[in-house]
Amino acid sequence: MKLGIVGLPNVGKSTLFNSITEAGAESANYPFCTIDPNVGVVDVPDERLTLLAKLSNSKKIVPASIEFYDIAGLVKGASKGEGLGNKFLSHIREVDAIVEVVRCFEDENIVHVDGSIDPIRDIETIDLELIFSDLEMLEKRVSALEKKAKAEKELREELEVMKKVLSVLEEGKSARSLDLSDEEKTILKSYNLLSTKPIIYCANVNEDDVNDYSKNKYVQKVIEYAKDQGSEVVVICARIEEELTGLDEEDKKEYLETMGLKESGLNRLIKSCYSLLGLMSFLTTGEMETRAWTIKKGTTAVNAAGKIHSDIQRGFIRAETINYKDLLAEGSLVKAKEKGLVRLEGKDYIMQDGDVVLFRFNV
């Protein structure tokens, strides 16, 4: 899973990236500090893996991972080349979802590029730049399609979908706002439009508000806005996440407790990403390794097998499946089988979050 962290300059974007990836991207109090996208790979926290690895005496644990792309601060006119222009807009096209960092704190020592704190204005600035970039690309594509569609009938349906999207973009609305059929969505997917990307709004607050943001007027505005958009909101304090950097798990837990927090902002952000993108994990465990595999909810057993290797998918016979809680409760796969808790599932079985699976195959 790839996530692009975007936002206006000086909203805490790179500070957040540094703290959650410990990748050491440059961070400073001036615009356009980030030019090329910094990339950091983050392990997805999953306590199930530790428990299963202990049960199986696994030599290693391989958690699921997320790639975070820290993309340069956007400004008005970015789609037309202002600031760093399309240099970084092109990077956003490669991600699965956008994490939009929105400044919801006041600090006279950190300048705002527009001179005042207004999260909804900031969100709309970024949304418009994404729309303008899509608009420019689609105008060229539609013009080319119109010529080809006269001779190639199979392109006419694609052309109609593109015209529908184009009309919405021209109204200043994102492509996400369109109610499209599954077939139309499939056609649109190949275009990788910026304004179709799911968005998580990451409201960056100060230390005093992270535990109780009910009185933070900026956060409340973002929550209301996101509700209308069908987007997720995660309230986070980039400074606290920065403080957690480098601490071991025990010290992190102790620090979070002193702040009155149950978990880090990173954990909450990851959960929101999984929820927004409709993702879950199935698990495999044995002496060699215990591993988490990320798949879409609704994935069949045979397609989940392909996540591990194409040969397993091609030669799929069955999936020996048990819920991780049942396996842990019994203490071993042998005992679980004796109690009939291990199910034999076929190709069309819909995988469930927390399934521990052994795929049988023959090629």
From TrEMBL:
Keyword annotations from UniProtKB, A to Z: ATP-binding, Coiled coil, Magnesium, Metal-binding, Nucleotide-binding
Positions of the OBG-type G domain: 1-256
GO MF, one example: ribosomal large subunit binding
Domain of life: Bacteria
Cofactor(s) this protein requires: Mg(2+)
Keyword set includes Magnesium: yes
Any one GO CC term of the record: cytoplasm
Stored PROSITE patterns: G_OBG, TGS
Start and end residues of each TGS domain: 278-361
One Pfam family it belongs to: MMR_HSR1
Annotated residues for binding of ATP: N10, V11, G12, K13, S14, T15
Coiled-coil ranges per UniProt: 128-172
Family affiliation: Belongs to the TRAFAC class OBG-HflX-like GTPase superfamily. OBG GTPase family. YchF/OLA1 subfamily.
Role according to the record: ATPase that binds to both the 70S ribosome and the 50S ribosomal subunit in a nucleotide-independent manner.
HAMAP family xref list: YchF_OLA1_ATPase
Name of the protein this chain belongs to: Ribosome-binding ATPase YchF
Species: Citroniella saccharovorans
